[in-house]
Write a structure and sequence with these properties.
alpha+beta, 14-stranded antiparallel beta sheet, 19% helix, globular
């Protein structure tokens, strides 16, 4: 009898918080809501699929501490619309934009303090677009990519460009030792 009560108590305790992936069908939208959990029961991600099993609607992912990691929108299995990704400290990491699964428009990448590090303006053809690089708020370098091939580079601030190039080369050399 003690064994039976112990098993019942363990079963009830394990049901008190969710673990793993939980699926919930919603008849009102003919869709399925998914909630994934960390081992401690906290939510790690949420998303919805349509009747065809394609992601549809807002998807969210969370760090283990509960802070939002990213939020983006799906439509019939394709990323569609604006999305935002965050550092663990809650600071915005980057913004994205997709049209029917294709990278388009302005994407902005920041560092953990919120300063802009890079801007990309995608044309809608793969990785084609204009890439702009910043250091301490100063736009110092640009590249244009067409048909996945680098077409041009422009150094806008030679001093910053040389400094960062030198630092990168020193770090690479130190890594080879």
């Amino acid at each position: 009898m003690k064994t039976f009560l112990t098993l019942v108590l363990i079963s009830i305790t394990s049901l008190s918080f969710a673990q793993g992936l939980v699926e919930e069908y919603d008849q009102s939208c003919n869709c399925t809501h998914y909630t994934n959990h960390y081992d401690n029961g906290d939510v790690s991600a949420t998303y919805t699929t349509n009747a065809s099993g394609q992601k549809n609607g807002t998807e969210k992912a969370f760090y283990v501490d509960g802070n939002l990691q990213y939020e983006r929108v799906w439509s019939k299995g394709n990323l569609n619309g604006s999305g935002k990704h965050y550092f663990r400290n809650g600071q915005l990491y980057y913004t994205e934009y997709h049209e029917n699964g294709i990278k388009k428009g302005d994407w902005t990448f920041n560092d953990e303090e919120g300063d802009i590090k890079q801007k990309i303006k995608y044309t809608g053809n793969g990785n084609d677009g204009t890439y702009e690089y910043y250091h301490a708020g100063i736009h110092y370098f640009s590249q244009i990519v067409v048909n996945d091939s680098l077409q041009s580079e422009t150094v806008l601030n030679q001093e910053i460009y040389d400094q960062l190039k030198s630092e990168a080369e020193a770090a690479q050399a130190a890594g080879k030792q």
